Amino acid sequence: MLNKDIIVDVPTVNKIARLSRLDIPEVNKESLTNDLNNILGFVAQLDEVDTSNVEPLASVTGHKLPLRSDDVNDGNIEDLVLKNAPESSSGFFVVPKVIE
Amino acid sequence: MNDTSTLKPGHIQGETGIWEMVIGLEIHAQISSKSKLFSGASASFGSEANRNVSLVDAAMPGMLPVINEFCVEQAVKTGLALNAKINNVSVFDRKNYFYADLPQGYQISQFTKPIVGEGEIIVDLENGEQTTIGIERLHLEQDAGKSLHDQHPTKSYIDLNRTGVALMEIVSKPDIRSPQEAGAYVKKIRSILRYIGACDGNMEEGSLRADCNVSVRKSGEEFGTRCEIKNLNSIRFIIQAIQSEAERQVDILEEGGTIDQETRLFDTSTGETRSMRSKEDAHDYRYFPDPDLLPLEFTENWVQDIKEKLPELPDSLKKRLVKDFGITAYDASILVEEKDYVDFYQQAANGRDGKLTANWMITELFGALKKDNLSFSESPITSENLGELISLISNGTISGKIAKEVFSEMMKSKKSPSEIVKEKGLEQVSDDSQILKLIDQVISDNQDKVNEYLSGKDKLFGFFVGQVMKLSQGKANPGVVNKLLKEKLK
């Protein structure tokens, strides 16, 4: 996992940007690389704690996951769902064409 | 490719020798719940766009997922039916990726601690053999929405109705060795899911789809680099896609190339796969436990209750059919594919010739339904009527040949076979004196042939039988005709 040796370089920034569909101007990449390294370096302080004998924790409350019964009691609110969409048409969200 | 007639399924003859396929499948099965996995919106298919969407599904800020108990139960039920280990504690993770039809920006799935662990199923192959395929895991996850790309030249239209619908992902071990085995495996999983009611198995509506991991190797060697073919929604396409992908890999390897690990799509119009995204573009999903959901826990008692309520499964039913009705294991495996087939068969064969009933059901009825493009539930022939037809054949009322005529009339008119036999006067004639009359006529009409026969041309015997049958319009009992003709032509 994270440790102090982790170094983000420009190719890594390019890869993350591509996966996140972010268009990052070339001039910003150097400073972004530094920022990311600083953030990761800060988080890496956690590595000072020895967790080799600790089970990974998914919850701290000790509560169990509540279950609901299989009833249809929501939906039919397409106007509300689409209300904040920048563009919509005949009930659909409309977005720039994305074909994967 | 080269002559493949002597090759085993799943083997490819190359210039450098025989290649073997290694296949693993991920099946996505939509759970037959009324509402979604984490919201109370309807999970039904075919509604108006964005009608079945709650604010949870639309990923509005502050909305929290609450899990559907029925879906958890179906996953456990399926795990038990796959002879798999049930994990009484499992964890939901976020699988992060960016796509327009995934409003959360992540799919809630299970990564390190799935609800069901390792298991195995027995798969029936067409040559009557069986093979065991290991199950790696089964986990619960959300489906994504649907993008329509053909509505507008520069825009995509997004419908979130499917977003958040509950899926079970069933991952096999790489135990599958041929496209046909892969097809049989999917059939078996689908049949089990339908028996227990966890999924309707409807591949056309997308309730069941598969991703296929395919690699090739020389026998005995390490696994090769695999490619994943995404989102196949019919057994025919699964078989075609695996065969063509394996052949593509063999061609590359034999030319000295290497296989790039990548995700590919199957083009149903060309029957070939093409690259969708390479390993460099592979998603970095950054899995982590979903902070909105606590670990999913249930008691052993709850699991036992579910186990006790499981219906009889195809494997056990199959054994019972072989034992009770004396049919072949392969016929039984076809009949147990669907619960409806077994119920129909058991009613039709009850107290009758089980083998004959199986033959008529599998060859004639399935064949006729396919020809008329009818589903099994639309069959014009009921189990009672098929059973009655079997009785009429067994007790000699009609011959097998006439039975086919009666059968096609049953397909058309939905009438009972005895009604048709009576209306058309099709009862088999076994009475010696009636058949002798026919024989006499055939002999007098064909005196020249009779002389040839008597002077040693034995082959003509079949001709006389045929003439008598023809004269009787197929109604004469062929056994009696044979016997009497032999006596007459001595």
Summarize the helices and strands and which ones pair or pack.
The complex is a heterodimer of chains A (100) and B (490).
Chain A: H1 10-19, H2 26-43, E1 67-68, H3 78-82, E2 88-89, E3 92-96
Chain B: E1 11-14, E2 17-30, E3 67-68, H1 69-81, E4 89-90, E5 93-96, E6 106-109, E7 119-124, E8 130-142, E9 146-148, E10 155-159, E11 166-172, H2 179-196, E12 208-218, E13 227-232, H3 235-254, E14 262-267, E15 272-278, E16 288-289, E17 296-297, H4 300-308, H5 314-325, H6 329-335, H7 339-349, H8 354-371, H9 383-394, H10 400-413, H11 417-424, H12 432-445, H13 447-454, H14 461-471, H15 478-488
Parallel strand pairs in B: 13-14
Antiparallel strand pairs in B: 1-2, 2-11, 2-12, 4-17, 5-6, 5-16, 7-8, 8-11, 9-10, 12-13, 14-15
CA-atom Rg of chain B in angstroms: 29 Å
- What share of the residues of chain A lie within helices? 25-40%
The amount of beta strand of chain A, in percent, is 5-15%
- Name the overall outline of chain A: flat
Number of strands of chain A: 3
Task: Describe the strand arrangement of the main beta sheet of chain A, using strand numbers.
Answer: 2-3
CATH-defined architecture of the domain at 1-48 in chain A: Orthogonal Bundle
Unreliable segments of 5+ consecutive residues of chain B: none
Q: What average pLDDT do the residues of chain A reach?
A: 88
Shape of chain B: elongated
What does this protein structure show overall?
- The complex is a heterodimer of chains A (100) and B (490).
- Chain A is of the alpha+beta class and 100 residues long.
- Chain A is built from 3 helices and 3 strands; from the N terminus they run ααβαββ.
- In chain A, a hairpin with a 2-residue loop joins strand 2 and strand 3 (92-96).
- By secondary structure, chain B is of the alpha+beta class.
- Chains A and B meet through helix 1, strand 1, helix 3 and strand 3 of A and strand 3, helix 1, strand 10 and strand 17 of B.
